[in-house]
Amino acid sequence: MNWDPRRLAMLQEMGLTAWAPRDAAPGEAPAQEPAAEAPTAPLAAPVAVPVAALARRPGGVDQMDWPALREAVAHCTACKLCSGRRNTVFGVGNERADWMIVGEAPGEQEDLKGEPFVGQAGKLLDNMLRAVGLTRGDAPPERQVFIANVLKCRPPHNRNPEPEEVAQCEPFLKRQVELVRPRIILAMGRFAVQSLLQTNDAIGKLRGRLHQYHGVPVVVTYHPAYLLRNLPDKAKGWEDLCLALQTLEGR
Ligand code: URA
């Protein structure tokens, strides 16, 4: 890793210093899993999706191209979240991106703009991405990421996604991954991790090694909103980003 001035500035933006030894990063949080992230909520037991609801999600999602998928998400009424949304939040970035970032669900700002991660957590995410030479803005596929959420509609009052909502939305995310064909997925936060990896394990237990989603390597990391509340853990977010970077460089 080259510590050029721009990258150093970005690390500073993240509250990190480049010279900190890995095993004693400044403000390193205690080894114990932070309360906000653990224990994880029970993994949704397989959800029986009501037949009436299924009728409202178009069939054949697994065959759709980008325009059809966008259209299907925009008009989806498969769960109750459709009644409160101002916009669906499909995703943003390069449709052939090497990197895919998966978050949880739109919040208020995202619902207003129809774009993922545009609030405070999004600013931190953009800074983290910039620190490793990535962007959501126009760039070639090796530099421009694709960002999507598990849920495409905002849960009211930013409550946690419900199992049925996750189950209804899951085919959309799966198809997005199939179409993007990323070389790496960064799963941010517990709902992204639960949905992609089908595990109940805490993020702290899953970090630091590679997982797989339909053949794509997955790196697990904390949600940027969590990092904003737990500043010392930003160092761990940086480590996770470096693991993803090294994974790609080694391929
Ligand atoms: N948090 C998420 O997980 N996704 C967003 O789009 C915004 C906040």
TrEMBL record:
Entry's EC annotation: 3.2.2.27
InterPro entries attached to this UniProt entry: UDG_Type-4/5, Ura-DNA_glyco_family4, Uracil-DNA_glycosylase-like, Uracil-DNA_glycosylase-like_sf
Enzyme's top EC category: hydrolase
Regions annotated as coiled coil: none
Keywords: 4Fe-4S, DNA damage, DNA repair, Hydrolase, Iron, Iron-sulfur, Metal-binding
Gene3D superfamilies with a match to the protein in the record: Uracil-DNA glycosylase-like domain
Substrates-to-products reaction catalysed: Hydrolyzes single-stranded DNA or mismatched double-stranded DNA and polynucleotides, releasing free uracil
Domain Uracil-DNA glycosylase-like: 90-242
Family assignment from sequence similarity: Belongs to the uracil-DNA glycosylase (UDG) superfamily. Type 4 (UDGa) family.
Name of this chain's protein: Type-4 uracil-DNA glycosylase
UniProt organism field: Caldimonas mangrovi
